[in-house]
Amino acid sequence: MLNKLGRITRINQRRMRADAPPGQFVTEKFPVLTFGPTPRISTAAWEFKIFGLVENEVRLDWRQFNDLPQTTLDAEFHCVTQWSKLQNTWQGILFTDLMKLTAPKPDAKFVMAHCYGGYTTNVALDTLMDDDVLFAHSHDGAPLTPEHGGPMRLVVPKRYGWKSAKWVNGIEFMAEDAPGFWEVRGYHMEGDPWKEERFWSSLSY
Ligand SMILES: Nc1nc2c(c(=O)[nH]1)N[C@H]1C(S)=C(S)[C@@H](COP(=O)(O)O)O[C@H]1N2
Ligand SMILES: [Mo]
């Protein structure tokens, strides 16, 4: 009985992975989706800050960040403009490994990702604590190009691409949810592609 249920679960997972989420088209390409100019940040100038509702604020330079354990992750990428790239190999530092440097205060429930250039996006702390959330410096075996968020970007595979903040330079822990750059403009606060959480209901396409 248990074996049979286990086998069915695996088959279902395989079916889901073979297809894109509803309303998405599969592409082999890796389009660039950026609002505004591409920031050019050298690794020498790069710095990263963990702040807000945390036990202790943390500042890291490029070497300190990359001295953290390295993880390779295969993940899908779904942009709300309807393209999905199903195969991506990212390399970088898991969110959960970064969080070994400090601890969220008990009332911290949401995170704002901040980026060079001023872009922001909000993600629930629960979502970020998943084992597939990565700060990536490489994609498919090569360092991230500036257009794709180099030297470092966030990758949140279970959310639409706008939550995968490029040129990320800080994470702010918050008690209440607050909208980021696209969320202010009508994008969904959660953005789960499997639930088609694209926009506020009144703006649904
Ligand atoms: N800083 C920043 N991050 C960003 C964006 C942006 O405009 N600025 N665009 C988002 C959107 S809408 C998507 S789909 C992905 C696209 O990543 P890509 O350009 O590497 O394909 O980056 C996300 N992260
Ligand atoms: Mo996007």
Please, could you describe this protein's structure?
By secondary structure, the chain is an alpha+beta fold. The protein has a single domain, classed as Alpha-Beta Complex (Sulfite Oxidase, Chain A, domain 2), CATH 3.90.420.10. Helix content is 17%, strand content 27%. The chain has five helices and 13 strands. It has helices at residues 2-18, 62-66, 95-98, 125-128, 181-184; strands at 25-26, 47-52, 58-61, 71-74, 77-78, 83-85, 89-94, 110-115, 120-124, 134-139, 142-143, 153-155, 168-174. A five-stranded mixed β-sheet has the order 3-2-13-8-9. Strands 4, 7, 10, 11 and 12 form a five-stranded antiparallel β-sheet that branches. The protein has a three-stranded mixed β-sheet with strand order 1-6-5, with no helix packed on it. The protein binds the ligand Nc1nc2c(c(=O)[nH]1)N[C@H]1C(S)=C(S)[C@@H](COP(=O)(O)O)O[C@H]1N2 and molybdenum atom (MO).
Structure characteristics:
205 residues, alpha+beta, Sulfite Oxidase, Chain A, domain 2, five-stranded mixed sheet, binds ligand MTE, binds molybdenum atom
Tell me the layout of helices and strands.
Blueprint: H1 2-18, E1 25-26, E2 47-52, E3 58-61, H2 62-66, E4 71-74, E5 77-78, E6 83-85, E7 89-94, H3 95-98, E8 110-115, E9 120-124, H4 125-128, E10 134-139, E11 142-143, E12 153-155, E13 168-174, H5 181-184
The protein binds ligand MTE and molybdenum atom.
